[in-house]
Design brief:
This protein is an all-alpha fold. The chain has 29 helices and six strands. It has helices spanning 2-25, 34-48, 60-63, 72-96, 109-132, 138-141, 157-178, 188-191, 193-196, 215-227, 234-258, 263-272, 277-283, 289-307, 311-314, 331-346, 352-368, 372-396, 404-407, 410-421, 428-437, 444-448, 467-480, 482-492, 536-548, 551-557, 561-576, 587-599, 609-627; strands at 198-200, 203-204, 513-515, 520-522, 524-525, 530-531. α2 crosses α5 and α11 (234-258) packs antiparallel against α12.
Length: 629
């Protein structure tokens, strides 16, 4: 029986190879980047070859003790759903979003999508193998060169953490040396408004804080600049951001060390991570997006710690694991959960929805499990949110963001606009409303200036649009034109789901200093004493970042479809193994992605940093957590 099973598995090798060759050479789509496609196919084929795993007597079903209670039909359904997502993320853009996606005489789109689904099933099966091989006996199969021996204790946590922090911080400051004193855009000046309107004491000029910006970020920036020991003050914002990012990355890397990954590999990571352009460049620009990414990573990391010990969810007595880490209800984790949740609420204008979904879900679970300290942390975060949002905003004199009410409708109006141009069907009332709020919708100049992935704000006159009327318009448009509306949403946000660098995104390699006094993007802003002193390092990093924005590296560093796909695969693996509590880790970022679909009018890479950070660190952390000896 074993021989027949092995032969049956070997038969999949020519099937997958033939399928890959057909899609690679004959499908009228760009089958990923060629190098990325070859690597993916090679990885799947290597995973099909016979290995020593069969000799251990441990099958994927036996390996995971939590996989038993999950009904077989549920595992199959989740597998097929994840495979379809991968299929669409790899092949869907070229099949359904590009005008010349198919060649004459080719198979129908759905036929290619079906072949892609078969290929994705093989790829997903290979991607799930690290999870399927974990559990009893996994430690014995783990590479000895990577993992510390089980009996070896983790010593010198603080010294190692400081070493990682020093390496990360020094490497991140290289970017400031090249792009000194900071990078500023038009938006940056609204984050500097608190400092520029600072009157001393606790007073700020009226309008220094705008509700459409992250007010806690503006507040922190204002105090960093106010306390800066030297000019230009904006340089110290970069230092503070680099330090905060290094703290978070050091903590995450030390988590891997606590999974018994050897420290020398983490030292290499501390050198390499700051070389990622979207990491390094983002520490030198005055935007709230890095703080947003850190907030989501921090919350995900805290949820990882809370859910890592099964006893924390089964019994009332917390049991320390082999690394002697704090239990799920420790004071440190409770404080961090409270602060991370609070920061997520204020990270960006759309992130409050991630809080409004995550906090109640966590509160309900902690209540059911009688985890009173964690429940108190969530409750305290709600108190902090309310205190900052109402009396805090009043104390700062926070003003309404200009056109904020209109701004929140732009992306959805854009989708209705696109649907209209693509032959959508509307009720008479909705059609009249569209022509009212898009006055020049039928003008040739408006059609010529319409971009599928970019909201042109001056197309819309929304000052009189009420929320109720908007909801009625949107509901009618979506019910009558679900495919066209969804297509517009997905195209706007392609950077967050397409597994490749299919088209340009905004803000890549931005290094200018915007000067509002002259309206110029250049190398200086005299009003705040910001003057760029370029050097040989500037030229070197200019060339390096340009190289890193070419298609293959851009798929990993400037787009986030790869990381979204990795999170989908990891979530599917957790579900099929019955690790339902661990799915909480991906809840905040999942809600965040949903908000982008609804509200993001521009495909900016910086909006995807929460996706990047969570997708980069959490899936391997979850694998290593179970692979450790």
């Amino acid at each position: 029986m074993t021989t027949r099973t092995g032969l049956y598995k070997l038969l999949h090798i020519p099937v997958f190879a033939a399928l890959s060759l057909f899609l690679f050479f004959f499908a009228p789509v760009v089958f990923l980047n060629r190098i990325l496609a070859l690597a993916a196919c090679a990885g799947v084929l290597l995973g099909m070859l016979p290995n020593k795993k069969a000799q251990t007597g441990i099958t994927p079903t036996e390996a995971g003790p939590a996989s038993g209670p999950v009904p077989r039909i549920a595992r199959i359904a989740v597998f097929l759903a994840a495979a379809f997502y991968l299929d669409f993320a790899v092949f869907g853009f070229d099949l359904f979003f590009t005008p010349n996606g198919l060649t004459e005489g080719s198979l129908p789109r759905l036929a290619y999508l079906g072949l892609g689904f078969a290929w994705s099933c093989y790829a997903l099966r290979a991607a799930l193998r690290p999870f399927a091989s974990t559990g009893a006996g996994a430690g014995a199969r783990a590479p000895a060169s990577v993992f510390l021996p089980a009996a070896q204790p983790i010593r010198g946590y603080l010294v190692k953490w400081l070493t990682l922090f020093a390496l990360l911080f020094a490497a991140l400051m290289v970017w400031q040396k090249a792009y000194n004193p900071a990078v500023l855009s038009y938006d940056s000046w609204e984050y500097l408004a608190g400092w520029r309107g600072y009157l001393g004491g606790w007073s700020w000029a009226e309008g220094s804080f705008l509700k459409g910006r992250s007010i806690p970020y503006v507040f922190l920036v204002s105090w960093v600049c106010a306390l800066a020991p030297t000019a230009p003050e904006v340089a110290w914002v970069v230092v503070a951001q680099g330090a905060a990012f290094a703290v978070m990355l050091s903590t995450v890397l030390m988590y891997f060390h606590q999974q018994r990954i050897r420290f020398k590999y983490l030292l290499a990571c501390a050198v390499l991570l700051p070389l990622i352009p979207s990491f390094g460049l983002h520490t030198v620009v005055v935007w709230c997006d890095l703080a947003c990414g850190i907030s989501f990573l921090w919350l995900a990391w805290v949820l990882l710690r809370i859910t890592e010990t099964p006893s924390a969810w089964i019994s009332q007595a917390p049991v320390a694991d082999i690394s002697h880490r704090p239990s799920a209800g420790s004071l440190s984790l409770c404080v961090q959960l409270c602060l991370a949740l609070t920061l997520v609420y204020f990270a960006r204008p759309n992130t409050f929805l991630a809080y409004l979904v995550t906090a109640p879900v966590l509160a309900a679970l902690f209540l059911l499990r009688k985890k009173w300290s964690l429940l108190a942390a969530v409750a305290l975060s709600a108190v902090l949110v309310l205190a900052i949002r109402f009396p805090g905003y009043r104390a700062l004199g926070a003003a309404d963001y200009p056109h904020l009410e209109e701004h929140k409708y732009f992306a959805s109006m854009h989708d209705m606009h696109a649907t209209y141009y693509n032959g959508g069907v509307f009720s008479g009332k909705t059609l009249a409303a569209l022509k009212k709020y898009i006055p020049e919708i039928d003008a040739p100049a408006t059609l010529e200036r319409f971009y599928p992935d970019w909201v042109v704000k001056d197309h819309y006159a929304l000052s009189e649009l009420a929320t109720g009327e908007f909801i009625a318009m949107y509901a009618d448009s979506f019910i009558r034109n679900p495919v066209k509306m969804a297509k517009s949403m997905l195209y706007r946000n392609r950077a967050y789901w397409v597994v490749d660098a299919k088209a340009d995104v905004n803000g890549v390699n931005y290094t200018d200093i915007y000067d509002p006094a002259s309206g110029a993007y250049g190398l200086q802003a005299p009003d705040i004493g910001a003057y760029r002193q370029e050097s040989l390092l500037t030229g070197v990093l200019d060339k390096y970042t340009a190289m890193m924005s070419t298609p293959l590296p851009a798929a990993f560093f400037w787009r986030f479809g790869v990381w979204t796909a990795l999170m989908v695969v990891t979530a599917a693996a957790l579900f099929t193994r019955g690790r339902y509590a661990r799915l909480l880790i991906f809840l905040p970022v999942s809600v965040y992605i949903a908000t982008l679909l609804i509200t993001s009018g521009w495909t900016d890479y910086r909006y995807g940093l929460p996706v990047f950070f969570t997708g980069l660190f959490l899936p391997p952390a979850l694998i290593f957590d179970e692979l450790r000896p």
